[in-house]
Amino acid sequence: MLTCSEVAAQASNFLDQDMTVSQRAGFRLHLMYCRNCRRFVHQLELFKQSVQLRPIVKPSEDQVARWMQQVNKQSAK
Q1: pLDDT digits (tens, 9 = 90+) for 4-37
Q2: Cα(36)–Cα(42) distance, rounded to whole angstroms?
Q3: Are 68 and 45 within 8 A, CB to CB?
Q4: Which of 6, 34, 62, 73 has the greatest number of beta carbons closer than 10 A?
Q5: DSSP secondary-structure letter at 16?
Q6: How far apart are CA 58 and CA 20, in angstroms?
Q7: d(Cα 46, Cα 56) in Å, to the nearest integer?
Q8: How many domains does the chain have?
Q9: Is 41 exposed, middle or buried (0-12, 13-18, 19+ CB in 10 A)?
Q10: Secondary structure letter of residue 60 according to DSSP
Q11: In 10 A of CB 2, how many CB atoms?
Q12: Which sign, positive or negative, has the C-alpha torsion 31, 37, 43, 44?
């Protein structure tokens, strides 16, 4: 059976369905017994969904220029 560390390392692959059938079975077996990993995977799934739903906003040229001025001021200090 997988350890919690292995589940954490493979959680993204699990959610992306980028595992073999046997790997998914081992992953699911661990989740059946480990409430903390179930919570972790659920939170990761919610995070991935929220990032996908977030609209992509392109900053204006004025905003980029202001940000660059701020960066230059900070790096000059």
Answers
A1: 999 999 999 999 999 999 999 999 999 999 999 9
A2: 10
A3: no
A4: 34
A5: T
A6: 38
A7: 18
A8: 1
A9: buried
A10: P
A11: 18
A12: negative
Supply the range of the domain harboring residue 69: 4-76
Cα gap 16→24, rounded to integer Å: 11
Alpha-carbon dihedral angle through residues 9, 47, 34, 36, given to the nearest 10 degrees = 100
Size of the chain, expressed as the number of residues it contains: 77
CA–CA separation, 17 vs 19, rounded Å?
Answer: 6
User: Alpha helices of 1-77 — where are they, by DSSP H?
Assistant: 4-15, 21-33, 35-53, 61-76
pTM of the predicted model, to two decimals? 0.68
Tokens (6 digits) for 52: 């996908």
Residue written as tokens 């995977």? 41
Domain with residue 34: its CATH number is: 1.10.10
> How far apart, in whole angstroms, are the C-alpha atoms of residue 49 and residue 52?
5
